[in-house]
Specification:
Elements (H helix, E strand, L loop, with lengths): L23 E5 H13 L14 E3 L18 E6 L2 E10 L18 H7 L1 E2 L2 E13 L16 E5 L7 H9 L1
Parallel strand pairs: 1-2
Antiparallel strand pairs: 1-6, 3-4, 3-7, 4-6, 5-6
């Protein structure tokens, strides 16, 4: 059973081996914003989303009031629906010094790892983002291919939420 080291995150029977087979790493814009706030407080260079090499980056609702961002809210998510596709959250993504290497210039910086190590260290390991895998979708035909698009609505399901989403129930019953 996979047990997340992130406080408040509940284990849910995901085999730890599944982490290495995740199809995507999801990071949130509010998390990056909070991280950069902390970096700037110490005079460091802000991190760009690209250093985390995420397949999916989730922004908060653009109609939300300023200042109501919820960084690291994804630590408590169990499933996601993006458009017509469903994903399972497999656990927190452990980070290493690679996030300090500019992917274009190969220049190495101290940030964002130094700040992550101060703010997102649990059990001696540094975490940022979530491993996810595709469960399936509402599209006809099935198979293991899915399409999500920029701007599609994202719905999260937390541990303990009543799952009454027909598509998610169908995906879970297919396992």
């Amino acid at each position: 059973m996979y047990t997340s080291p992130v406080p408040g995150r509940q284990p849910w029977g995901i085999d730890k081996a599944l982490q290495s087979t995740s199809a995507a790493v999801s990071d949130g814009v509010p998390c990056l914003n909070r991280l950069n706030e902390k970096i700037k407080e110490t005079g460091g260079k802000a991190a760009h989303a690209e250093v985390f090499r995420a397949n999916i980056i989730i922004a908060e609702d653009p109609s939300a009031s300023p200042g109501v961002e919820q960084p690291y809210v994804e630590d408590g998510w169990r499933y996601l629906r993006i458009g017509r596709q469903y994903f399972q959250m497999l656990g927190s993504c452990r980070r290493c010094q690679m996030v300090c290497v500019d992917q274009t210039t190969a220049e190495k910086n101290e940030e964002p790892f130094v700040t992550l190590a101060k703010t997102r260290r649990f059990d001696g390991k540094v975490f940022f983002g979530q491993h996810t895998c595709l469960l399936g979708g509402l599209d006809a035909g099935g198979g293991n291919q899915a399409t999500i698009m920029v701007g599609e609505k994202v719905v999260s399901f937390r541990e303990g939420d009543e799952v009454n989403d027909v598509g998610l129930v169908r995906c879970l019953d297919a396992d």
